[in-house]
Automatic annotation (TrEMBL):
Transmembrane annotation, as ranges: 15-32, 39-56, 62-83, 95-117, 129-150, 171-191, 211-235, 289-307, 341-358, 370-390, 629-650, 662-683
Gene name of the encoded protein: SLC15A1
Name by which UniProt lists this protein: Intestinal peptide transporter
Localisation per UniProt entry: Membrane
Gene3D superfamilies: MFS general substrate transporter like domains (1.20.1250.20)
Molecular function per GO: symporter activity
Keyword terms: Membrane, Peptide transport, Protein transport, Symport, Transmembrane, Transmembrane helix, Transport
Organism encoding this protein: Sebastes nebulosus (China rockfish)
Similarity annotation: Belongs to the major facilitator superfamily. Proton-dependent oligopeptide transporter (POT/PTR) (TC 2.A.17) family.
One Pfam family of this chain: PTR2
InterPro entries xrefs: MFS_trans_sf (IPR036259), POT_fam (IPR000109), PTR2_symporter_CS (IPR018456)
A biological process term (GO) from this entry: oligopeptide transport
Protein's membrane topology: Multi-pass membrane protein
Record's keyword annotation contains Signal: no
Length: 742
């Protein structure tokens, strides 16, 4: 039984099986499969760059580079999938086999994110990071092979389920199909970041990347099972051969033949494809039309270079921002949901309002002009991103360089003191208060003078470090020097420590961390307080205990801050004790709000609608009937190249200022947009159907002429044979008469 035969009837069963509301029952399995698969892919991809940065401990550039290599592979493998499906296995088997590969890859990613596997000392950090890196890279390769391989097959396989008289149902199916893509993308980018923010683990609790990858893996298994369940209802077309291979062979033969006849003695031909003499002229004409469109594709990768950074650079940018929207706290990777939401909003608005309005104004807003405007929109989006980055940079602390040290002062006494530091005016430091800022020094030892009568001490400083000098209530006592953080806390968390200025030890704890027993006039280490994104309020509650007495202290620390909380000797335990605890801000919380990213998401999405949607429609309209897959492959190839460009810039250019990088990308796209507009100006729109009809008409005419000439030749031959026969008879009669006379 061939692949296109019905398992029971052994023939084409399209339109004759079970129908639900006029649609083949089989397509419902395909739609559910697509929704689950897209949820799986976009859910995993939403948290991927943060997994690289915070779990594998890669820097921003390496995390960005590997992310875009993965995306590029996802858009290269569809070419392989199309060739395998059309030339060997057929769409059904290709989807089954590659979905299995896909599911294995997702499971590998989930396992690679389980930190307890190699955490032998149970400190919360993997001991053998190589295991996690290798397993995750294998998983990503399998996912790229799977998702890319089935990409050109699923939609086409769904379209195959409809008979020729079900054209209306087929169009509706494709609309629902692409709605499922956006629906799966939207839900997954909301849900998986929430799962990532949870804490899980066998021995220690860490951010739950394994759950964030595990749910997409489960959805991929569901997608595979659902697709297999419907296998008995599918129409399975037999592989017909892949047109891309014929196109490549034809182009290769033309190039080879042109090279052989490169000498001047051979006359030039109008088009280099005219050197192809092996294949049909219709195929050559179709390839010429395809090459004409592919030439326009040359500048397009630059758009994708900018567009796909939503999931990398922009997500990393959001980690340094404030995600508190009042009733809702947004995680950095959840900002990506703005894109599918805007797509679902802008597509109908553009089609129903904007484009018709432009047409009414008498403007010829051709597809290529739309694409040009879309590229400009993407450039504007990156200008917005650069402005946001400048705003973020202004809020970031300035840490000491290799030759510098930074010092903050904390007065632990109950009286204000005057402190004199080298190169600075005398500073009046109130009781139980810290200096507002860090003082920067290039010296290794500084002279600090305090009080009247003046008490002077020499304080050794550590290069490239921030430190806090704890000034005791009795100046003659020991002065302590503590090490402070020299980097902002990651993932929007807050770093908190306590300094005990009381005469008795205290015990400080929170639901998220335990600071332990802090001795008198001493300090605790910093503890990372994880922000709970699922709660409306971000307040952290602390319990300070000394003997049988306790004090409840709560505070909203924001995102990405570092605080030193000082417990003064004057603390009175009880209901109002919170007012006595002093909070010194070592690192300011993120003050640039994530809402600032909305304009850049709006412009990049508007650009996507005008560029991507229009570009696909343009390519489809300009492609010959049997070459649409070739242009689709070319379109996906531009996406892959665009992601490789990000890799080059991130790893080679090494631009330190992120806003400069954004401006560079925007400038490059503007330049490319200018080139594309010139190319578009000289492009002549064609009607492939009309050209193909003309060729077929010409072929038919040539066939008729050949037939007519053949019939004429046969008639002449018969006539000639008739005359010859008549002459032979006359000659025979003449000879016979002559003999009788003789």
């Amino acid at each position: 039984m061939t692949d296109n035969e019905d398992p029971k009837k052994g023939k084409d069963n399209r339109g004759t099986g079970t129908l639900v509301c006029g649609y083949p029952l089989s397509i419902f399995f395909i739609v559910v499969n697509e929704f689950c698969e897209r949820f799986s892919y976009y859910g995993m991809r939403a948290v991927l760059v943060l997994y690289f940065k915070y779990f594998l401990r890669w820097d921003d550039d390496l995390a960005t580079s590997i992310y875009h290599v993965f995306v590029a592979l996802c858009y290269l493998t569809p070419i392989l999938g199309a060739i395998v499906a059309d030339s060997w296995l057929g769409k059904f088997k290709t989807i089954i086999y590659l979905s299995i590969v896909y599911a294995i890859g997702q499971v590998a990613m989930a396992v690679s994110a389980v930190h307890d596997i190699t955490d032998a000392d149970r400190d919360g950090s993997p001991d053998d990071m190589t295991f996690h890196v290798v397993l995750s890279m294998v998983g990503l390769f399998l996912i790229a092979l799977g998702t890319g391989g089935i990409k050109p097959c699923v939609a086409a396989f769904g379209g195959d389920q409809f008979a020729d008289h079900q054209e209306k149902q087929r169009r509706t199916f494709f609309s629902v199909f692409y709605l499922c893509i956006n629906g799966g993308s939207l839900l997954s980018t909301i849900i998986t970041p929430i799962l990532r923010a949870q804490e899980c683990g066998i021995y220690t609790k860490q951010k739950c990347y394994s759950l964030a990858f595990g749910v997409p893996a489960a959805l991929m298994v569901v997608a595979l099972v659902v697709f297999i369940v419907g296998s008995g209802m599918y129409y399975k077309a037999e592989p017909q051969g892949n047109i891309m291979l014929d196109v490549c062979k034809c182009i290769g033969f033309a190039v080879k033949n042109r090279y052989r006849h490169r000498s001047e003695q051979h006359p030039k031909r109008k088009h280099w494809m005219d050197w192809e003499e092996k294949y049909e002229k219709l195929l050559i004409a179709q390839i010429k039309m395809v090459l004409k469109v592919l030439f326009l594709y040359i500048p397009l990768p630059m758009f994708w270079t900018l567009f796909d950074q939503k999931g990398s650079r922009w997500t990393l940018q959001a980690t340094a921002m404030d995600g508190d929207f009042g009733l809702l706290v947004i995680q950095p990777d959840q900002m990506q949901t703005v894109n599918p939401i805007l797509i679902l909003t802008l597509v109908p608005i553009m089609d129903s309002v904007i484009y018709p309005l432009i047409k009414k104004c008498g403007l010829n807003f051709t597809p290529l002009k739309r694409m040009t405007v879309g590229m400009m929109m993407a450039a504007i989006a990156f200008v917005c991103a650069a402005l946001v980055q400048l705003q973020i940079d202004q809020t970031l602390p300035t840490f000491p360089s290799a030759s510098q040290s930074q010092l903050k002062l904390l007065n632990m006494g109950s009286n204000q003191v005057t402190v004199t530091l080298p190169g600075n005016d005398p500073l009046l430091l109130p009781a139980a208060q810290a200096s507002d800022e860090f003082f920067t020094f290039d010296l290794e030892i500084i002279r600090v003078s305090i009080g009247s009568p003046e008490e002077t001490k020499y304080i050794p400083l550590a290069k490239e470090k921030r430190q806090t000098l704890l000034i005791p209530s009795n100046i003659a006592d020991e002065w302590l020097l503590t090490d402070d953080l020299t980097a902002k806390p990651e993932e929007g968390n807050n770093a908190i420590r306590f300094i005990n200025g009381m005469n008795a030890a205290v015990n400080v704890s929170t639901p998220a961390a335990h600071f332990g027993l802090i001795e008198s006039f001493y300090y605790s280490n910093y503890s990372q307080i994880t922000n709970n994104y699922s709660q409306i309020t971000n307040k952290v509650h602390h319990t300070i205990q000394s003997g049988s007495q306790s004090c409840e202290y709560s505070r909203d620390f924001g995102f990405g801050s570092s605080y030193t909380l000082f417990i003064p000797s004057t603390l009175i335990f009880g209901q109002n004790c919170q007012e006595s605890v002093t909070a010194a801000e070592d690192i300011k919380p993120n003050s640039a709000h994530m809402a600032l990213q909305i304009p850049q998401y709006f412009f990049i999405t508007a650009g996507e609608v005008m560029f991507s949607v229009t570009g696909l429609e343009f390519s489809y309209s300009q492609a010959p009937s049997n070459m649409k897959a070739v242009l689709q492959a070319g379109w996906l190839f531009t996406v892959a190249i665009g992601n490789f460009i990000v890799l080059i810039v991130a790893e080679v250019a090494k631009i330190r200022k992120r806003w400069v990088e954004y401006v560079l990308f925007a400038s490059l796209l503007v330049a490319v947009c200018f080139i594309f507009s010139i190319m578009a100006h000289f492009y002549t729109y064609t009607d492939p159907t009309e050209i193909e009809a003309q060729f077929r008409k010409k072929v038919d005419k040539d066939d008729e002429d050949d037939k007519s000439q053949h019939e004429k030749a046969e008639f002449e031959m018969v006539k000639k044979d008739s005359f010859k026969s008549h002459d032979d008879e006359d000659e025979y009669e003449h000879d016979k008469t002559k003999q009788s006379r003789m």
